[in-house]
Write a structure and sequence with these properties.
Elements (H helix, E strand, L loop, with lengths): L6 H33 L13 E6 L2 E6 L6 E3 L5 E11 L3 H9 L1 H13 L3 H5 L3 H15 L9 E8 L3
Antiparallel strand pairs: 1-2, 2-4, 3-4, 4-5
């Protein structure tokens, strides 16, 4: 007896083959990822440089630079957008303070956004970086309980004009 293949059975077979290929590819991907995860050193990031801190050795102390705030895009009064990257040093050996910093990332972003978004239009053209750093640093330190940030750095500060 001869099997008759209809269009419906052909399309079902094609779907089955595609799903089988996807499942096999995912399995291979998981096996390779597991092998890489087991074989890599523990102190290296899995994909690229995803660490939020950089180690800087100063006089034997473990000082690191916190850059976990990222690069928020801040809408300004004049419809421009400010892209800002904020970083600051902290003592890595103070684990409680380090955890507090990690827990305050969204508050740090909101403080910076609120500060720059509230600047009058005439101050946006010539932002006083020192005054901005001082004010944001004071606001950051006001919400911290387990330590204080000594200084702020603006790594990137770029205004994209809407006009």
């Amino acid at each position: 007896m001869e099997k008759v293949e209809t269009a419906k059975t052909r399309s079902l077979r094609t779907v089955y083959i595609v799903l089988l290929v996807v499942v096999v590819a995912l399995g291979v991907f998981l096996v390779i990822g597991t092998i890489i995860g087991i074989a890599r050193p523990l102190d290296t990031p899995l994909l690229g440089n995803t660490a939020q801190t950089q180690t800087v050795s100063v006089q034997g102390d473990d000082i690191r630079v916190f850059s976990g705030i990222g690069r928020p895009r801040i809408p300004l009064v004049n419809s421009s957008v400010l892209i800002l990257s904020i970083a600051f040093p902290y003592q890595a050996s103070d684990i409680a303070f380090t955890e507090e910093l990690a827990g305050k990332i969204s508050e740090f972003k909101n403080i910076a956004i609120d500060y720059f978004a509230s600047l009058p239009e005439d101050q946006i053209i010539q932002i006083n970086e020192d005054a901005a750093k001082t004010e944001i640093l004071n606001r950051y330190n006001n919400i911290l309980r387990l330590g204080k940030i000594p200084v702020l750095y603006f790594n990137d500060m770029m205004i994209i004009d809407a006009n």
